Amino acid sequence: MIKVGIIGGAGYTAGELIRLLISHPEAEIDFVFSTSNAGNQISKVHQDLVGSLDKIFTDTVNPNVDVLFLCLGHGNSVKFLKANTFSENTKIIDLGNDFRLEADKVFEGKSFVYGLPELQREAVKDANNIANPGCFATAIQLGLLPLADAGLLNQDVHINAVTGATGAGTSLSATTHYTWRDNNFSYYKPFTHQHLGEINQSVKQLQNGFDSDILFMPNRGNFSRGIFATIYTDFEGSVDEAKNMYKAYYKDAAFTFVSDDNLHLKQAVNTNKCLIHLHKHKGKLLVTSIIDNLLKGASGQAVQNMNLMFGLEETTGLQLKATYF
């Protein structure tokens, strides 16, 4: 069995990890670390786990776990790893943004591989440490990779994407209170979102000469979970040619599928899937990409990466079904 440690255990992504791992046939949770909740029952925070997990949060670590998941706020993974030492055999999967960019991937002798399986499956299999992609970045990259792989991103890319309230984490702010979020809609960080760095990095990995702009407008929706991204750019071929290209690119992908029908968010929420739909209008190709921000955009993808790192079937413990009604 794979012995698992989870750091930052009180947050949304840690809660999703716990839910996945308690049913994973090849993994067991050794400890869940949370300084703010040390000594408390985990089910007091993640209340749906009453009767499913009889463990308490701890403020100490077992340095010999097989894999460590870091579910910390952006910038805090580096701080934690500086303050805590683990076995050289412990694999690390960071769900924050500390190691995603090429300039940040090496830390104190540890090299982190960017963990988007549809782009880096073989590298993930051989990795000791993974930088798990961001949620917006996952949905957007999966919408763009086939075009980049074919060298067809030759004009600006326009993106409008909406995320649910869980994308903001558990800490309260002016824009996360129910009374502000309910029956409301807003944009934030226009054209400057932090996930643009990793999106550009992956596009250029496939299409080295890409020098156009990726113009990204992130939005807050008044739902709990999910990302609905629409992407459009110039495309000279037919929609059938685009579908064939996308289906060929994702033919071996465990969780990314091209749909011939229009998409809606409930198809992906509570699954580890990314669903993609293509539409052609005059000279523009519209790509719709939907995921669950907490699963394929975070914890589900992290378990997918763990499976690859330990030689398991990619889908192990991730046969999840959408909550459709």
UniProtKB/TrEMBL annotation:
<keyword id="KW-0560">Oxidoreductase</keyword>
<dbReference type="GO" id="GO:0051287">
    <property type="term" value="F:NAD binding"/>
</dbReference>
<dbReference type="InterPro" id="IPR036291">
    <property type="entry name" value="NAD(P)-bd_dom_sf"/>
</dbReference>
<comment type="similarity">
    <text>Belongs to the NAGSA dehydrogenase family. Type 1 subfamily.</text>
</comment>
<keyword id="KW-0028">Amino-acid biosynthesis</keyword>
<dbReference type="Pfam" id="PF01118">
    <property type="entry name" value="Semialdhyde_dh"/>
</dbReference>
<comment type="pathway">
    <text>Amino-acid biosynthesis; L-arginine biosynthesis; N(2)-acetyl-L-ornithine from L-glutamate: step 3/4.</text>
</comment>
<dbReference type="InterPro" id="IPR058924">
    <property type="entry name" value="AGPR_dimerisation_dom"/>
</dbReference>
<dbReference type="InterPro" id="IPR050085">
    <property type="entry name" value="AGPR"/>
</dbReference>
<comment type="function">
    <text>Catalyzes the NADPH-dependent reduction of N-acetyl-5-glutamyl phosphate to yield N-acetyl-L-glutamate 5-semialdehyde.</text>
</comment>
<dbReference type="GO" id="GO:0006526">
    <property type="term" value="P:L-arginine biosynthetic process"/>
</dbReference>
<dbReference type="GO" id="GO:0070401">
    <property type="term" value="F:NADP+ binding"/>
</dbReference>
<dbReference type="Pfam" id="PF22698">
    <property type="entry name" value="Semialdhyde_dhC_1"/>
</dbReference>
<keyword id="KW-0055">Arginine biosynthesis</keyword>
<dbReference type="InterPro" id="IPR000534">
    <property type="entry name" value="Semialdehyde_DH_NAD-bd"/>
</dbReference>
<protein>
    <recommendedName>
        <fullName>N-acetyl-gamma-glutamyl-phosphate reductase</fullName>
        <ecNumber>1.2.1.38</ecNumber>
    </recommendedName>
</protein>
<feature type="domain" description="Semialdehyde dehydrogenase NAD-binding">
    <location>
        <begin position="3"/>
        <end position="127"/>
    </location>
</feature>
<dbReference type="GO" id="GO:0005737">
    <property type="term" value="C:cytoplasm"/>
</dbReference>
<feature type="active site">
    <location>
        <position position="135"/>
    </location>
</feature>
<keyword id="KW-0521">NADP</keyword>
<dbReference type="GO" id="GO:0003942">
    <property type="term" value="F:N-acetyl-gamma-glutamyl-phosphate reductase activity"/>
</dbReference>
<dbReference type="InterPro" id="IPR023013">
    <property type="entry name" value="AGPR_AS"/>
</dbReference>
<keyword id="KW-0963">Cytoplasm</keyword>
<dbReference type="InterPro" id="IPR000706">
    <property type="entry name" value="AGPR_type-1"/>
</dbReference>
